[in-house]
Amino acid sequence: MFPRLFGIPAFHLFRWELGPFTLHTYGLLLAVAFLTGLYVAARQARKAGLDPNRVSDLGVYVLIAGLLGAKLLLVIVDLSHYRAHPEDFSSIFQSGGVFYGGLIAALPVAVWYVRRHRLPGWATADALAPGVVIGQAIGRLGCFAAGCCFGRPTSVAWAVTFRDAYANRYVGTPLDVAIHPTQIYESLLSLLIFFVLLRVAAHKRFHGQVLIAYVALYSVARFLVEFYRGDASRGTVLGGLLSTSQFIALLMVLGAAAVTPYLLKRQSVA
Fold it and tell me: What is the mean pLDDT of each run of 10 residues along the chain (270 residues)?
């Protein structure tokens, strides 16, 4: 775990004091994830005969909305903690937030952009989906470096132990305890989903199939990984039976199953 790549102490430039500055690993990998996602989305757009610049611009809007939504849902589901410990509020900038909050915020922004520029909605979503999931795969490595989204204590052979006090101070990472590397679990699953989506895109039967595959597969993956998460409560439903993310994952799978027959009947790929 390396939450900080390097730091620059405070220094004076003429009459001004600048710094200190810190380059966080999470921030760097988030930037890499964003650029990689845009590259993949642009390539998929070209293959689909779409304007890659429009799709890339859409990716930027979706990213901004997603980041804000993920942080907002993190605060909402853990509001009692932030009320009791307002000094911990700055920790939201050191963690990835709740992904489904980002997805929920990004959807209306994407619909607005598609309608404004008269893009084919389902085909555009298909081009964007592989870029989103490869970005998630890289972004979760940033979570691993930062120590956020950590797992439950375990004795499995591949358990990891964090020892950086900086991560413990900012995101509550438990130190000197063997835990599940849940960030790596989700990163590997997202990478697998990425390759599946490329396969689906090459042989899809209707526009929207890649997006539906992404929603369904990621929701199943997230539902399973949630059982091994050990970070602070992100909210529960059904009397604590499911986490907020698991509940949303179930809704996403049901939604994907419901819309598939409609798209299959109304659309086809020439």
Answer: 65 65 78 93 94 92 84 71 63 61 84 92 94 94 89 96 84 91 97 98 94 96 94 73 88 94 75
For residue 140, give its domain range.
22-266
Is residue 16 situated within a structural domain? no
174 found inside a domain: yes
3-class secondary structure per residue, the chain: CCCEEEEECCEEECCEEECCEEEEHHHHHHHHHHHHHHHHHHHHHHHCCCCHHHHHHHHHHHHHHHHHHHHHHHHHHCHHHHHHCHHHHHHHHHCCCCHHHHHHHHHHHHHHHHHHCCCCHHHHHHHHHHHHHHHHHHHHHHHHHHCCCCECECCCCCCEEECCHHHHHHHCCCECCEECCHHHHHHHHHHHHHHHHHHHHHCCCCCCHHHHHHHHHHHHHHHHHHCCECCCCCCEECCCCEEHHHHHHHHHHHHHHHHHHHHHHHCCCC
